[in-house]
Amino acid sequence: AVVSTQSTGYSRQNIDTEGRLLYLFIRSCCENIAMSLVLFAVMYLPVGEATVVMFFSMSLFMVLMAAIFLKEPLTCKIYIALIFGLVGVFLLANPEEIIVDQTFSKARLYGLGAGVGHGLFRVMFFFLVWKLG
């Protein structure tokens, strides 16, 4: 049976019990990984910077995953906004502090990677919640 939501026009298939348990397990794993990456990002970056990187990257991943899984159309304006968003996340990451004394600060790169990873896993969690209905 297909359940249709009139407000958005999307349809979702009912998931059998075994499939539902698998989705719940994957959703839990995504949320646990995302929360672990929050702590990891805050450990290596200042709190304000980690928060900005996590939540700005999350909105970029949301747009990309909506295009992939929900078949949302990506227009030229959206591509331009994504590019500006990526540049914004890069600038907010304070790139001049990544390079210290002509070497890369590994701790800072770990923090930035954890922040971006949080955004990705958090969006995957949201899409799994949507899939489970």
The sequence of SSEs as H and E is: EEHHHEEH
Q: How big a fraction of the residues is strand?
A: 5-15%
Q: Numbering strands along the chain, what is their spatial order in the largest sheet? A: 1-2
Query: Gyration radius, to the nearest Å?
Result: 18 Å
| Residues in helices, as a percent range | over 70%
Low-pLDDT sequence parts:
none
Distance between the termini: 14 Å
Largest sheet: 2 strands, antiparallel
Instruction: State the shape.
Output: flat
Total DSSP helices:
4
| Record field, number of beta strands | 4
Structural description of this entry:
It is a single chain. The chain is mainly alpha-helical. Helix content is 71%, strand content 8%. The strands form two sheets. The protein has a two-stranded antiparallel ribbon with strand order 1-2. The protein has a two-stranded antiparallel sheet with strand order 3-4. Helix 1 (17-44) packs antiparallel against helix 4 (106-132). The longest helix has 28 residues, at 17-44.
